[in-house]
Each structure stands twice: as structure tokens, then as C-alpha cells.
Amino acid sequence: MLRLICNNSFSIVWKCNRNMLMSTTPQIAEEVSKLLDLKAQLENREENGCSHKLILKTPKGTRDYNPEQMALRLGVLEKIISVFKRHGAETIDTPVFELKDVLTGKYGEDSKLIYDLKDQGGEILALRYDLTVPFARYLAMNKISSIKRYHIAKVYRRDNPATTKGRYREFYQCDFDIAGQYDPMLPDAECIRVMSEALQMLDLESYLIKVNHRSLLDGIFAACGVPQSKFRSICSAVDKLDKSPWEEVKKEMIEEKGLDEHIADKIGNYVSQSGGIELITELRKDKELMRQSAAVQGLDSMELLLKYCSIYKVLDKIKFDLSLARGLDYYTGVIYEAVLCGDGIDVGSIAGGGRYDNLVGMFDNKNKNVPCVGVSLGVERIFSVLEARLANKGLKTRTNEIEVFVASAQKNLHEPRMKILVDLWEAGVKAEQSYKKNAKLLAQLQHCEENKIPLAIIIGESELAKGEVTLRIVSSREEIRVSRSNLIEEIRKLLKTS
Amino acid sequence: MLRLICNNSFSIVWKCNRNMLMSTTPQIAEEVSKLLDLKAQLENREENGCSHKLILKTPKGTRDYNPEQMALRLGVLEKIISVFKRHGAETIDTPVFELKDVLTGKYGEDSKLIYDLKDQGGEILALRYDLTVPFARYLAMNKISSIKRYHIAKVYRRDNPATTKGRYREFYQCDFDIAGQYDPMLPDAECIRVMSEALQMLDLESYLIKVNHRSLLDGIFAACGVPQSKFRSICSAVDKLDKSPWEEVKKEMIEEKGLDEHIADKIGNYVSQSGGIELITELRKDKELMRQSAAVQGLDSMELLLKYCSIYKVLDKIKFDLSLARGLDYYTGVIYEAVLCGDGIDVGSIAGGGRYDNLVGMFDNKNKNVPCVGVSLGVERIFSVLEARLANKGLKTRTNEIEVFVASAQKNLHEPRMKILVDLWEAGVKAEQSYKKNAKLLAQLQHCEENKIPLAIIIGESELAKGEVTLRIVSSREEIRVSRSNLIEEIRKLLKTS
Known about the structure:
Two copies of one chain form a homodimer. Chain A contains 18 helices and 16 strands. By secondary structure, the first copy, chain A, is of the alpha+beta class. Chain A is elongated and about 95 Å long. The relative contact order of chain A is 0.10.
């Protein structure tokens, strides 16, 4: 019934076109308008699903989560939320789509990846690309000047994803952000601590947190002779160093972004450097760099940040890396990114963030800013890593929490089963039965073992007549007789010990 | 910076148009194509946000949830999930959008409310309208023949919502469904029990569950002389009886749907009836109706359902209501709907569902069906009711879970504060500090009282020198001296008792 046959509207369109060609010129405008209407109708028809077979799939770059995957995912999210709550975050939610204008001009080169909704009359909308811009819009709209919030929700990017590497077009982000006018680096260092605690909680073997500062990068660009108008686009190029070799990035700087070769080489010299606190000392000796106030300010900030990271016991995870640039336009201060190392699976960056002090102001009529810093965890990649690990170990997770299965040993006992069930439910016990009136006892008990249900109640006519039931401990197959009136109590006792 | 000025592209378009009018006919097709390109560019420009001011709002029919609302919402969802789990449901998730074809032909008159995504090259997509159709698609795609699952997620409808009544264009649904070939009414009765348990859990004062059966409705329509081709559209008309008086519905049947007046009157006679088990006995006496096998089958099913509902202790909540029709096309058996009564707030239907045995088959190449029955809770309306109630009582909810605030009584003690903080976090204690180095002590303590944080640690130079801190119980303002080495232990003790 889904495969209706379209009228061949093309022929109508072309007939109309020929008529148009024969008519006198003043009529052309009208005919063009008709043509456009017909074309729109035709497109509409096609979208309504005629003339092509129904393909049974999820949209490109998306996936369903089955119960096993959901159990894993909810476990991961719960751990992350516990870290966010340990740091005092409240949570908010925003709509999955925003007015298109809200997203425009925030993402630089990545804007082309935004999903637009169709104009069906009314507002022009687009799916959210991240949780940061909606957060900034929320702060400006509600005139909130300080908040510490987490937000876990799906975001959308029309990327060409390598789904094998855990990249999707629809994916969850877990964001923690601190907004407010505060003393330098106190919130920033806590964000790094939060990121580190979350990764630690997830037991992801070794990870490394790269940190850098946008002001320091700007200072470096200035010291190398990059004109200020090209700072952001050169920053974008540097950002590609985690995926491409320097030679390619250099080529982009020269050929696409019009930099002189000797300037590119100077930049290459800087961004190849990384280390710890000693790198700060090293850079302070660079007189050319120290003439740039942005660089001085960036280094001072980095020094304070690393000191706080040491107090917060995360310094051993940190690498001060001058090649870290972050793609998005809105960062203004410290930037950081966590990468997994080891574990055999290359998933690249799994968390990142930084300071964005001017984003809220872009939504305020008087440009009033609220300084913000935050971190975003890319949990899809974490799921992929954990799924692969579970698959390797051949482990299976329980996907429901049933405590008691109510079985019957003879035919036509479904009503007594139901009477027991409702008592269990009213006592808050998680319980189920077969939806077949006369399921075989063996099948019922097998269901219990396969699904790791701890207890089974087995009823038979003779026991019922005596006001008793059999209670079976599924794992040991041990069975005891229990009086109907003690049943709930007995179950509670056994569930505690099992 | 968001208010760029558009070039007046209109003038380009019209100039081009005039050129076109002057050219010879063979060139017209080419010029039309250019015109279309320019038009597309212009549209693109407008969508990219130029020439109109940024309006700071969420899209029509949507809303942000602030931390207080989120706390309430998460509490409600947790209760609902606990009911679903008590009945053994696992959970799945599906993408927020589907191939448009998946949604086509499933929703009858409501299809016009589907949100389409823009065709940006690639697949034609639309936002999900409910969770039932994606569930059926999931079953067919993965060849699953039995599952009991819950799914809590947002769905999208381009309705003209009365947001004051808790109706939105983006809203959460909480669905519980049982799929599989089972014995009659066993899963159906459990769905009604689940709906009732969930509403009971939410403490929503009195509610009523209307039940009916699509076969019985079909039998009634046949007995009244409605031609079979009009069953679904007459069913749609009956569905409006909860909002419109009979006179209006009758008018729709006669004028829009072409029914004879005497047939409409006969229908009116039936659908005005409601009651309990006795209504079944009454209807069985109706010889004309009993000639319709669909009606006999519907009544038999209703009788069994009500018997099971009695065992499941929900019969006192149930009203057998012949006017209940449910709007969606896909129902094939029992249908039900819960309405709130009393509480002073008119929110209408807050949950509903029914049996849909043919939906999965629509996605299967060989039309293989998986019978399903389910219930969907409309939590937005429940949130509205609970929010109104909280507002009436002037109650405020805690929006974070901080247990300990680390304060300092003198200047420049932020580093010792941070050292204590990191110990607390590593011990799993939920703790925070001011992000200002030298916040006033009074302000810090006020923050604790306002946010109902149970404990505060206060550090001062002299205590630090002695290896001690002050621990303050915020509610009683009682303070004790604790040695730094016993701090965590002492806090755990106090948190247990407070």
C-alpha cells in the first residue's frame, strides 16, 4: 500500500513548457509561475513517498539503540551525571530545534553541517548543532548572569561520518558549563577536573588532556606576522594538525589562505612544541613572542591554570600542546581536549571544551556578556569503545530488572497467576508472567534462567488448594513451599540475600 | 554583527527577468533556469539571517526547561520508569527523525502536522510524530517477534497548541508496549494496569480510564448502515466527541462525510452510551448489532478485558465508553484513554493507547505482522498540573545536590579551599566553593542557606595552622572544630543524620 504509482507529472510540466514557448512574451511571467507551482507539487509528491520502494533503514549516520546498547548507555550517562552533580551542577533542557538565526554565524566553516527544517510556513528552524549555543541563547533570553549547569541531549551534524569510529550525524553530548564573572582560571580548572573525573569513572584506560590558550595562539600568529584578519582561518588550519601532517596544513595556509611560506614555517616551528610547565618558561625567553601582549596574557593564564590543575591532582594527565586550536569560532581563552591513548581502538578526541566569553553577548541587545567556560563529552565514542570491549569479553548485560516470574505448572491457571502478580506489583516487586495462558513449565523456567530472573513462583492446583505456592531460586534451582500469606515477606527476604 | 545588510537581490532578479522578456524564445529555457538559481540564492540569503533582526525566543510551541522545571520533570519520569520496570520492560531508542516514507500513510488526517526536514541533498527526512511508528519500523527492520519495551523521548507535531493547557509542538511521550503473538487480552489488560499504576504513582487525584474496541465500533457502523469505505472517516468524526457536542459531529458526518441523517442519528444513539459490565449485557440484547460478527467479537473481547481488569484491581477506574474512538488510523482492537477529573485544572486526556496488530506488517516485505498493544503517557500535561500545584503551594525544589560548601573566612585562602575540595571530590562528596577568591564570608554562608546545602566547611589561617577546620551545620548554624585528618569521616557521619 506504500507503493502508489505517480501520475507522470513530468509530461504535464513539459507540455506546459512548450505552451509557454509558443505564447506571447507578456504571458511568460505567469507561465513561469505556473511552472514553479507544478514543480513544487511534483517535489511534494516525491517526498510523500510515491514511485519508490520503502527502504527499511534509519537515516544515514543515525542508529537505533537496542536494549543491550541502552543498558550500557544509561550506565555511562549515570556515571557522568554523578560527576556533574558532585560538582554542584543543575540541569536544563532546550528544544531540539532553534530559530535558524540563533545558530547563524557561530560555527565558522562548520555551519554547512547544520540540518535545516523545511519551510512549511512560519518560522525558519534548524536542528541544534551543539548544546553551547542554545545555552548561550538561554542565558541571554532569561538574563541569567551566573549558573553551573549540565545538559545531556542529542545534537545534529550533516557530516559524512565514519560510523565505525563512533561518529554519527545524531549523537549525544554531555555538557558541563560554568557561567559567571569570576576570578581567573578557578572555573576553568574545575572544568578540566570534571572532564578528568568523568573519564576516570568510565574506566577508559589511559587518556591525555591537551590544553592551550586562544590568546597565546593569537600572540604566536601576530609574532609570526599573520595579519589579524586571518587569525581565525589560520587557527582553523592549525586545528587540522591532529588529523593531517604539517606539510598538508602548511600547504593550506599558503595556497588556500594566502600566507607567505616563511610565515607558515615560523608558525610550524611554534605549533610543533608541547610539554609541561617548563614549556612556559621556555616560551617566556622568546623575545619576539613576548612583545605580543596577547601571548604574555595567554602564558600568564596557562601558568595559573597549570598551578590549579596541580592542586586538583590532574597535572599528570595534562599536556600543554601548542598545536591544539579547536575548530569552533566562539572560544576566547583556555581550550582543552581529551584523547584516549592505548586500548587499541583509535577514537581520537573524546571530550573537549574551553572558555567562550563573548557568545552570550552575541544574543544580547546591549552586547552584555556573561563569561562562560565548559566541557563537552562525546559519549558516542565512549559507547563504541565500551561496546567493543564488552564484545571482546563476550559479556551480556541484563536489560530488564524483573525479580520474580510467576509460572504455572498446569493448564488454565492464568487467573490465579494474575492474582499473585497484582499483589506483587502492589508491593512494588518487579514481576511478570507469560502472556500465554498455557505456556509449558519448562519454557517458563528456561525464560527465567536465560534472563537471569532471580526468583520464580510456581503454582499448581494442589498447592493452591492448600493456600501455598512453590518459590524457586532460579540460579540454584532450589525450591521451597511458602504459604500464600507469607509470600511477599519471603520474597523480600530472598531478594536481599540473592 | 548579526544584522548584516542584504544586497538588494530582488533588483537583480527583475533585471534578469526583463532581459528574458526581450530575448528570443529558444533562450527562454536557459534564462528561466538562471532565474531559478538566483531565486534559490536569494532564499538562501534570507534564511541565513540577513535583513531581519534577531528575535530572542524559542520556536513556536516549544519551551526551555529551567532547573526547577527539570527537577520536577526528572522526578516524574523516574516514577514512570519505575512502573515500566516493575512490569519488566527494557528500553530502546530510535533517531529523532525517520525517512519520510516511514511516517507516510500512518496518521490519517494528522499527517499534515508532521515536521519535514529541508532537502539538503540526500535522504528526505521528517521528525518523528510519535514513538509507535518508529517502534514498529524497529521491529520489522530487526525481525523482532516479541519484546516488552518502554521508550521515553520527544516527539514533534506542527499543531497550533494551547500552551496554557500543556500542549506543545515538542513534547515528551512515555510509551510502554508489548509486542508478540499472545493470548487474548493478557497484554492489553496489563497495559491498562501500567497506565493506572503510573497515574497513581504521580498522585494526580482522580482519573478515569475510558475503554472501547475498534471492532465494536466497526460493528456499530455496519449495523447503522455506514458503508465500509467510510468506517475510518466516521471513526475520526466520533473521535471529536470529547471536544465537540453531538450536533456538530453529526453535521460533519452528514455534510462533510456524506452520511444520511437517519444513519448519523442511529450512530448518535449508540455512541451516547457508556457504563460498566452491564452495558455489555445490554448491547448483547441488540439483535441488529449482534448480526455483525465484528460487534460480537468486540463485545467478547471487552468482556474478557473487564474480567482481567477486575483481577488487576483497576475496574473501579474504568468506564466502557462507546464514544471513545481515538484519532489514529493504526488501532485495530482495544482502545483506551485516561482523563483527569477534578483538580480544578482541565487538561483532558493525559494517557492513551490501544492495540495495533497491522502496523509492523506495513513495514515488512512479506506483510508479516507482529501484534502489538501499548500505552503512551502525555507527561507535558502532567508537568503542567504538578507545576500549577507546586506554584499554588509556594514550594521550591532543590535543583542541585551539593552536600558541602567550602568557605574561607579570610582573604587569599582559595588554594587551601581547593585542596580540601579535591579531597572531598575524591571521597565522592558533592562539594563546591565560590569561584571568587575572596568572597565575603557572609555571602558564602547566605549561599548555603538559600540553596539548602546541609554542611559548610569554614577555613581560617589560625585553624589551618593547627590542622583544623570549622564544620557548620547550615540549618542549625551549629559549628564544630574538626581535625583535617578526620574531616571526611565526620562529614559522612553528619550527612547520614542530617
